Every structure is written in structure tokens, then in C-alpha cells.
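can u do me a favor
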């Protein structure tokens, strides 16, 4: 699995996505179902930094003020999972890099040996 440089690039790409996720806007989605319709509501809470430092004005929007605790909890969950993902991917990158640097550059000779044995048996 770790015999290619593309593995390192893929892990780096995943780390970049996890870092981007920290700076993304926190959104809450609600799905409502009635007898006649299905509606989907989306509330944009703000960035994680603004929610955790209490820089969001919740009094401007009625829906936002009702879901204040949900927004803050969603920001905490997003931040925690992003940090844990980055830590895990850093360990994976380190392990893959060490495995890539220590790989052997020889080829498997078993197929060549079987061909040579078959030739030698035919010549006798």
C-alpha cells in the first residue's frame, strides 16, 4: 500500500480538507415532513472561531437565536473531529513516509527463476 508517492499526496490532500473544514461556515439542517410536503431548512450559524469566541449576534435572526446551543455544539464537534482527523492523518503520513523511504528497490525474481528452471530441464 505504501509503495507509491501517491499515497503521501493523498494523505496530504486529506489533511488539507481537514484544515479547510476548521475554517468553514457551520450550518444546521432541519428536515420537516408533513402530510403534504417535505421541506428542508438550513441555518448558517457562522464560523467556528466566531461561535466559540461568542462574536455572533444571535439577536438578528429569530431562528438563529432559538438554535444558539445547537450552533455552538456543532462548532465544538466540528473542531474536535477536525483536530483528531489531522492528528491521525499526521501519524499516517509519518508512517507512510518512513515506509516509502525504507522500501527495497529489488524485484521479485521467482518468475525469472521458474523460467530458467524450465529451460534447463528441457535442454537436458
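np, heres the sequence
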Amino acid at each position: 500500500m505504501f509503495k507509491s508517492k501517491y499515497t503521501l499526496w493523498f494523505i496530504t490532500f486529506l489533511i488539507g480538507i481537514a484544515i479547510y473544514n476548521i475554517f468553514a461556515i457551520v450550518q444546521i439542517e432541519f428536515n420537516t415532513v408533513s402530510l403534504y410536503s417535505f421541506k428542508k431548512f438550513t441555518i448558517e450559524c457562522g464560523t467556528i472561531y466566531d461561535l466559540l469566541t461568542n462574536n455572533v449576534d444571535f439577536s438578528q435572526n429569530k431562528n438563529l437565536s432559538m438554535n444558539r446551543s445547537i450552533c455552538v455544539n456543532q462548532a465544538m464537534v466540528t473542531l474536535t473531529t477536525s483536530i483528531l482527523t489531522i492528528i491521525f492523518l499526521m501519524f499516517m503520513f509519518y508512517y507512510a513516509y518512513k515506509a516509502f523511504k525504507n522500501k527495497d528497490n529489488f524485484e521479485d525474481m521467482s518468475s525469472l527463476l521458474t523460467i530458467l528452471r524450465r529451460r534447463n530441464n528441457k535442454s537436458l
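The radius of gyration is 27 Å. hope that helps!!
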